[in-house]
Amino acid sequence: MATAIVTEPGKAAAQVPSNSPYQLDKAQVLKASRALLKFVVGQEKTGAKPNLLADADEPDNSAETIWLNLATKKFISDVKRLKPSQVALPHPLRTATSSTICLIVKDPQRTFKDLVVSASLSATITKVISISKLRAKFRTFESRRALCASHDIFLADSRIVRMLPALLGKPFYSRTVKTPIPVNFEGPKAVTPARLAAETRAAIGSTYVHLSASASTSVRVGRADFTPEQIVENVDAVVTALVAKKVPAGWRGVRSFHIKSPNSAALPIWMTQELYADEDVLRPADEERKALVDAARKEKRTAKKMVKRAQRAEFVKSRAALNVQKEEEQPVEMDFEPAPVSKALVQSEERLVEREVVAKKKRRALGDVVDAGLDVTVKEAKKLKTKKAM
């Protein structure tokens, strides 16, 4: 009897009989693909929702995308990851002749521009931007949106990919269509034209899995102009990579796989027979133990709240007593404060005192002259005083 290979993360591949439910039925995938393509073609003929971006000269860029939807029993990832996972496709969604690529790199920019020319990739990689030029020239929302619309694929040096969300913003990260794809230029060896060409070919010939903290994810697996057989091969490649590397517990962690177009219903191609495992079901003893644990936790939280309330009340009471004690010890203050004396007022009082002293001296001198028996005026008295002094 034929066998199939089932792998789980961290475990060796295991041989599973071909009649095992934990594998993809290609006949079912082919049937769903034919029905989905027939629906898309029928929509185009009836003109229910015409594709306004359709271009007969470039069908790669205008054909509707076929998606693979994965639903899992548990979260695939605990956080949203900025670096998407790369999955090689037997039938790529884009080609080098129909795609334009923008390469975002570290400084200096000139080094990578020379590498693009040396690798004969000028027709594919039409723009090279360094991180410093990205900061300087693309600060506004309009400039970032124009950059996003100017290229089909954006490649980014893996060493700077974590800096790009703050520099590119919503036009690139609101959807996964134009999210920059990390290219591995790390390592002690210098980047060569051959290495750049290989990374570019791998980027064009792959699809990408963007993981987030959820129990579902969607991956592009084809276009509406593909044949059903091409979609089956791409779906098989993506499912194998997801189950082997991304889904916790492998096939046993998968709930379902569906394929769909943007305007169609999701067609199932695989669904699990058990929605939960034995370890997910609580036995009576486990339920009692869980109830006891929950009650103990609740009691502990209540006790902590009571302790905090008592501490708060004690603090308020001690603070009030301290304020009363300070008010009793504080000396009685006067109802008014003396007005501050200005410097000009002090100087004017000093001048008045000096004038009064001078006037007293004059009166004393005049009295001396009068006491001598002379009938003179004040001026004469002053003259006499002066002569006497001489």
From TrEMBL:
One of its GO terms (cellular component) is proteasome complex. The keyword Disulfide bond does not apply. It holds the Pfam family Ribosomal_L1. SUPFAM superfamilies: Ribosomal protein L1. The keyword Ion transport does not apply. It comes from the Eukaryota. Keywords: Proteasome. This is Proteasome-interacting protein cic1. It comes from Discina gigas. The lineage of its organism: Eukaryota, Fungi, Dikarya, Ascomycota, Pezizomycotina. The gene is CIC1.
